[in-house]
Structure formats: C-alpha cells, structure tokens
Amino acid sequence: MPEKSNPSSAKPRLVVRNARIKDISAIRTLVSKVYEPSKMGTYSAAMLRGQINNFSEGQFVAEYQGAIVGYCATFLIDAQYALKPHTWREITGGGYASRHNPDGDYLYGMEVCVDPDYRGLRIGQRLYDERKKLARSWGAKGIVFGGRLPTLAKRLRRFGTAEDYLDQVKSSQQRDPVLTFQMRNGFEVLGLMQDYLPEDKESLGYAVHLLWRNPNAPDEQEEKRAKTYGARLPDTVRVATVQYMQRRVGSFAEFIDLVRYFVDVTADYRADFVVFPELFSLQLLSMEDQELSPAESIEALTKYTEPLKEALRDMAVRHNINIIGGSHPTRMPNGRVENVCYICLRGGEIHEQPKIHPTPNEVYWWNIEGGHSMNAINTDCGPIGVLICYDAEFPELGRHLVDQGANILFVPFCTDERQSYLRVRYCGQARAVENQCYVVLSGNVGNLPNVHNMDIQYAQSCILTPCDFPFARDGIAADTTPNVETVAFADLRLEALRAARNSGTVQNLKDRRHDLYTTIWREK
C-alpha cells in the first residue's frame, strides 16, 4: 500500500528572489491590482524588461505558493542626483531604470508594491530588508526614494498644507500608513518633493524624500571597492556582419547551403553573433521559372517561413552562434504581411522582431504593414535589439531598446543605391552616439533582375561605435569594401560602454532631461 501523504509537509512557501524576464506578465498583473484604486496604471512590459536588464541584482519579487505577490525595483545612482529634489520620471529614466550607474553611490528605490490580499505576511518588510542587504553587499552609502502619501488628499483639509501634515507625522502626532512604516525602518526625512508623480492623485503629486544610511558603508577616504556584476556579461563580444551577394539559386537547399557557409566561417572565428541583411531570403524567388507579381511573390515566400526558421535555429545550435536572420516577408495569422527578423540564439530559442516602419516601396510592391512591438532580446552576451533598415532612421526606436538594456543594435538593411545606404549608415552612427551603444549594419550586394524591388543593391556593411576615447578613432570598429561579398568582424567591449555612459567625455544617456521630455511606447 502506498504511504499517505503528510499534510504538514505541504506548508505554504514564501520566497524573495531576483525578478526574471519570465516574471514580467505576473508583475504587470500585480502592479495593476495594487494601483487600480488610484488609477495610476501599471508598468509596460518594456519598462520591466529595462529594469531587469539594466540591473538584474536590484529587482526582487516575493513569491507565495508560486504566485508573485510583491515587487521591488531598485537601481544605483550618484549622490548628486539622488540627494537633490527630483521627479520620479526624471530619476528613473521614464520607468526603465535606464539611469542605473554601476558606480553609483546610492541605491534608489523606484518601486515597492504588495498584493493587498497578502499584506498580513509582512512582504513589504521582507522587500525592504532585501534592499538593505543589497546596499550592504554593494557598499552603497544608503538607500534613497520618494515615498507616497496615499492619505494626503483625504487629510489635507484638516492639516492645511502638505508640509504641516509631514511635520505631524515626523513628530509622531499623526500616523501615516506608509510613512510611519518607512520611518520605523530607519529612513529619515530629507524633505518634501512636489510634482514627484503627478498621476498620484491620492498623494496630490507629493512624495517624501527619504534616506536610509548604510552603517557599513566605506569611509570617503577608503579606496573605492571593486564592483561585481552578479551574472557578469562577457567583457568582449565578437560580432560578424555578412555582406551577402544576391544571385540566382536553384533550390531552397542551395540557398540554405550559402547561408550555412557564412555561419560556419563566422563560427570558426568564434563569433558570438552573425547578422545577415534585410530581405536576404528574397533570393528564393529567383528559383521561379517566370517573373511573379508582388502578391504571387509573397505567397511563394510564405511557404518557406517555417523551414527558414528551423534551418537558422539548427545552424545556431550546431555552430554555437547567435544568428540575426536578416528579415523575411511573413504572412501573419491575421492575414497581414510583415517584414520579420528571426533571431535564433545558440540555446535554441527563436525571437521575432517585425519592422515597425515599412518603406514606401515595401508598401507598394509587397503590401507590407508595420509591426507593433519593439523589444530588447536577452542573450548569453547581454540584451540586444534589432532595427530593420528604415527603423534605424527613427531615433525613438533605438532609445526604446537601449532603455530596455540593449547594448548592441543590429541593423539588417537592403538599399538599392548609395544615397539610400548613407541614410541608414548615418542614422546608425547617430544611434551609436546618442545611445552610447554599438550598432552593426549588414546589407545585400548583387542583384535579382526578375524580382520586384530587388533589381540592384548597394551596401557597405560596418560595425559602429560611440565616438569617445575608449573606441575606434572614427567611431568605426570594422568596415567593408562596398558592393563585394565579404564578412567583417569586431570585438566589442561592453565594459567600454559602461565607462563611456558613466564617465565619458559626454554622457548622453545620463544627461537626458527627463524633466522636460520622454518617449512613451503605447503597447497594443
């Protein structure tokens, strides 16, 4: 007879751990539930991805019996920003934690929320304790944040001003459900910040500027500790860009053999990434015996979508390399045609990035429509992003990816003549400068005379860097000869990006005026 299970062995389990990308959906649900009464909304998936990618060690969830019931978001920032008055949007980079500085003096607490149905479990206390542990382990001078006053709107008439209410709470003559808890946890009041979060109607936009001092922080005179980065990104990432020749092929197998050749070559050079050009799969249309209409061409290509994805995934795993698979016109389940890049990682995962802005030619010839999602993709070499050709000419998209933690932007492109190419290249260089990131361009050469919109090609593929002392003199890590089939390699140091962003000659990301402007991504 089997033994009966012991009911006492199935005890409820509450754990606090670092948040993961796969937790994003559950965190969004939690935040929506917590802030629904105050109509403050929730974080977008991109914001949460940015928080985790920018500083994974600083994001925590409380998990009770498998459900996410608490969330805590934290990043590092310099004292000059943390200790002076600020707004939530300004200090957090619009909610992405994009102002995280690995060498920052203070931890900044941008969020703590707890499921109201589980508040008897002291989850908030556990999350505060986890933050303090993090501050001690990093040698931070303390923790700073803006605390809400969720009862202020109801009580203001009684106290007259927000300052008077704060004085009453500080002197223990009045109890506030949030601030009193924070003061009991060792936080001191630095002041009151007006218009901290205007959407917080319950707090009338106010926040209390709070500071916890780390008693174990090193003295100012001590030599600054060497920081570690947890699951540290590799210091050097080797990337390869394929300048791919369009020519007639006789079968799908022949096309895949050509692609496999370049994957094999770049893997032999131990590249971490290889990128192919936009629409490189249109080469498959050269197999047709007669010239097809645009509608017929799309239908002909659609049947190759799944075989292409499987072939690229198989190559990525077998050759131990991450493949940025150019782009392929794809008919979506709803009947739309989108220009999609398939990113095949060497662990076997496949990610998709649609082109957001189809060009007038794509709309005219292929009836291609723009996609709606632009997400950073987590890889074994850190977060990356993909901007397909024309998308690189829209600065909001590159900034959106970098806010989510992307360090390298891959730009598969397809241009017919030099002016078109230079638009993509100059914009790629601008994205590298303004976002202090690497940008990798890959284009087609050759021609396909019987394929609409692929008659002629012009390309000079390249690997671009920010323009500052740690990088190549002209902001070009690698370049190619125009209009010949070739491969270019470059070793990109992620540590150089961190140094440039936090102590470079100019610090574009850090110096953004979040108090004046921001980019808001509307998710569908």
Automatic annotation (TrEMBL):
InterPro entries: Acyl_CoA_acyltransferase, C-N_Hydrolase, C-N_Hydrolase_sf, GNAT_dom. Keywords: Transferase. It comes from the Bacteria. CDD domains: NAT_SF, nitrilase_Rim1_like. One of its GO terms (molecular function) is acyltransferase activity, transferring groups other than amino-acyl groups. PROSITE patterns: CN_HYDROLASE (PS50263), GNAT (PS51186). Residues 237-494 form the CN hydrolase domain. Residues 14-217 form the N-acetyltransferase domain. The keyword Transferase applies. This is GNAT family N-acetyltransferase. It comes from Thiorhodococcus mannitoliphagus. The lineage of its organism: Bacteria, Pseudomonadati, Pseudomonadota, Gammaproteobacteria, Chromatiales.
